[in-house]
Amino acid sequence: MQVTVYSSQPYDRRFLDAVRSANFAATDIEWRFQTAALDAGTVALAQGSDAVCVFVNDVLDAAVLEALSEIGVRGVVLRCAGFNNVDIDAAQRLGLFVARVPAYSPEAVAEHAMTLVMTLNRKTHRAYNRVREGNFALDGLLGTTLHGKTAGVVGTGRIGLAMARLLHGFGCRVLGHDPAPSPAFAQWGEAVALDELLAQADLVSLHCPLSEATHHLIDAAALTRMKPGAVLVNTSRGALVDTQAVIAALKSRHLGALAIDVYEQESELFFHDHSAEIIDDDVFARLTSFPNVLMTGHQGFFTEEALTEIAQVTCENLVCFAEGRNCANALAQRGISG
Ligand code: NAI
Predict the structure, then answer these.
(1) What structural domains and CATH numbers belong to the chain?
(2) Has residue 183 got a pLDDT over 70?
(3) Smallest CA separation from ligand 1 atom 42, residue
């Protein structure tokens, strides 16, 4: 089975190769690694492949899925949990198999969200540079104690639940908002309406998927409802937040700080080295100019454990696809005998 792996980085090759050799030697999965992202212009790279393996910023709209189908590709395996970039209805209509990795390591993402909160709050990124330069002055490094604060978790699924556990461990009062709250959340916090969460939380962390309903969930109106000085954390998907509205809220000093691992226009920037280039995105450039904004380039998932699990489940999904078996991780499939 030939599988074209789009948007592949050296670490994808390392983990996919290692897991295939260790656990799937009996199968005939053959990776065809491509650094290019999948979009209408790169579909042809999958010519001759049975399936494509894709990541968060690959484009799988109806036109791309139709083009893939036309050249004989029958399967799509995602190396991620979120699938907002896939037109599932179109995949179903075309009879394509689509499967994802639903829960490779919720803790990895929650721990990264917590890392962002702690770094921003205690300014360890600035302290690191100061101490290396022999500057031991504390002025400008003043933080706040997280213990005793109110934290709001929007989306109390796998990652939100892991985040709630961490926040609870830090001694925060935890509020959660989720239209389908998990019973497990009650152990760590109190389920409330979004408006109440925004009004009470000193820290708001987003962990819901991106959909039509959650697009710009945090817009100018939502930001106004947030407590003055509150911190906003987004490790989920960039378009949950209206970036222009966030910049306005930072400029007015209403929003206390922002930590993001995801950005609405990230596909133009993230996962590549642009350090020797001029970045054309003025919105991104404005964000980098705030001392109270901390950004990372979609690395929440990036741990040894998570990458091993992603490779393992991706191979399992491909075996299901090849054997025409029912797949618990499938988002679309057809002609399954069970
Ligand atoms: P999940 O499916 O376990 O949980 C998502 C929760 O959000 C569900 O309980 C759902 O009911 C809830 N939800 C849906 N609409 C909502 C709304 N309007 N308001 C509040 N809650 C809502 O998903 P999981 O595994 O926790 O992942 C969450 C998101 O994290 C993914 O969709 C993905 O976008 C993002 N993610 C980011 C990563 C990174 O590297 N930064 C890595 C993995 C996932």
Answers:
(1) 2-104+303-337 (3.40.50.720), 106-295 (3.40.50.720)
(2) yes
(3) 301
Residue from 159, 194, 197 whose mutation best tests the ligand 1 pocket (most atoms within 8 A of CB):
159
The CA R_g of the chain, rounded to the nearest whole Å, is: 21
**How far is it, in rounded angstroms, from Cα 338 to Cα 250?**
53
- How far apart are alpha carbons 181 and 43 in whole angstroms? 39
Q: Mind listing the pLDDT tens digit for each residue in 271-289?
A: 999 999 999 999 999 999 9
Q: Please give the distance, rounded to the nearest whole angstrom, from the Cα atom of residue 155 to the centre of ligand 1.
A: 6
Could you give the residue numbers annotated as active site?
237, 266, 298
Q: Mean pLDDT, to the nearest integer, of 240-265?
A: 98
Smallest CA separation from ligand 1 atom 43, residue: 81
Round to whole Å and give the CA distance between 143 and 317: 45
Higher pLDDT, 125 or 337: 125
Give the closest residue (by CA) to ligand 1 atom 32. Answer: 209
In our burial notation (b when 16+ CB lie closer than 10 A, e otherwise), range 19-33 reads bbeeebeeeebebbb
* Closest ligand 1 atom to Cα of 102: 25
Question: For 138-181, how does the pLDDT look when each residue is reduced to its tens digit (9 = 90+)?
Answer: 999 999 999 999 999 999 999 999 999 999 999 999 999 999 98
Q: What is the pLDDT of residue 74?
A: 97
Closest-lying ligand 1 atom to the alpha carbon of residue 213: 18
Q: Tell me the per-residue pLDDT of 35-84, one tens digit each, with 9 for 90 and over.
A: 999 999 999 999 999 999 999 999 999 999 999 999 999 999 999 998 99
Tokens at 150, concatenated: 């109110």
Does the C-beta of 180 come closer than 6 Å to ligand 1? yes
Distance (Å, rounded) from C-alpha 167 to C-alpha 149?
10
34 C-alpha vs ligand 1 centroid, how far in Å?
28
Q: State yes or no: pLDDT of 305 exceeds 80.
A: yes
Closest CA to ligand 1's atom 25: 158
Cβ of 297 below 6 Å from ligand 1:
no
